[in-house]
């Protein structure tokens, strides 16, 4: 390898329709249950990794700033594993930028670690296939493994490092769903998902949620493959509510919603009663992902921005796989 080797990759975050919450193995991030998601076309992390023999430690620049030591340590641990795989020892300078708010429940860690996996492995001289890349991304952030394949993606929980990875269920053009994310807060969340996963087991409801996950996965997969929005709505809202019920009943409890979160949820249910195909799902944050179909998206976006407390709406369609940047 040269003294200096670099690569730049781009990844979209993803929204989970069947959620991952809780780990069987927190170190390897083997999840308690399988999950299913869609990549988000208009949101992205763009990450450059540059190994340099003159560096004395890894350096990280996130959204043009030096982040806290914990973030740097997390990236260093991840790069240590890539260096181990590639048999190299150089430190790296990592520069990453998101075009959406970091850490507010819009899965910034998913796109960040998916992009980092491709950029870091490529610059280290590794040629990983999609499955290996997904397994690598999983070690950085569980949901990052779902930002590696394209379009609609399933993460099979598996039992170990080899068997826990994500694959594409259907390409991006399979179904023109719109995800209209109602932003009610851009603050960095107080409890990150890593600590949240560790708390899942303390909820009385987690075993029930996990025990029924295969059934929900089957229903959601079928709804997507059949483009059946009604069946999709029922299972997606149930799954989101189940995860938040676990969060609210863990010890200590996690409560991510704000008043505007609930206002959006109620509006969505009202619109549906009036015949609009629309449903909601919420990750570990207060912002609400409002899913609808192409013909109704303009109306849904216009109505969302009218809700007090909604500062803006970010719109995405199904997104691509992680990719190298041309530049
Ligand atoms: O990948 P993590 O550790 O950031 O966990 C993601 C957890 C949720 O976003 C709440 C659910 C999911 O499946 O994406």
How do the helices and strands line up, and which of them pair or pack?
Elements: E1 4-11, E2 14-18, E3 23-25, E4 30-31, E5 35-39, E6 45-52, E7 59-62, H1 69-86, E8 91-98, H2 108-123, H3 130-140, E9 152-156, E10 165-170, E11 177-183, H4 193-200, H5 206-211, H6 213-225, H7 229-248, H8 259-273, E12 278-281, E13 288-293, H9 297-305, E14 312-316, E15 323-324
Helix pairs in contact: 2-3, 6-7
The structure holds (3R)-3-hydroxy-3-methyl-5-(phosphonooxy)pentanoic acid.
(3R)-3-hydroxy-3-methyl-5-(phosphonooxy)pentanoic acid (PMV) binds at residues 16, 19-21, 35, 107, 109-110, 141-143, 193-194, 197, 283-284.
Structure description:
- This protein has 327 residues and is α+β, with helices and mostly antiparallel strands.
- It is 35% helix and 24% strand.
- It has nine helices and 15 strands.
- A five-stranded mixed sheet has the order 7-8-6-1-15. Strands 2-5-9-10 form a four-stranded antiparallel sheet. A four-stranded antiparallel sheet has the order 12-13-11-14.
- The chain is globular.
- The site of (3R)-3-hydroxy-3-methyl-5-(phosphonooxy)pentanoic acid has 16 residues, from α2 and α4.
User: Strand fraction band?
Assistant: 15-25%
Largest sheet: 5 strands, mixed
- Please give the order of strands in the largest beta sheet: 7-8-6-1-15
Order of helices and strands: EEEEEEEHEHHEEEHHHHHEEHEE
Quaternary structure: single chain
Helical coverage, percent range: 25-40%
What's the helix count? Answer: 9
Radius of gyration: 19 Å
Mean pLDDT across all residues, rounded?
A: 95
Uncertain parts: none
Beta-strand segment tally: 15
Query: What is the SS-derived class?
Result: alpha+beta
Bound molecules: (3R)-3-hydroxy-3-methyl-5-(phosphonooxy)pentanoic acid
Distance between the termini: 21 Å
* Shape call: globular
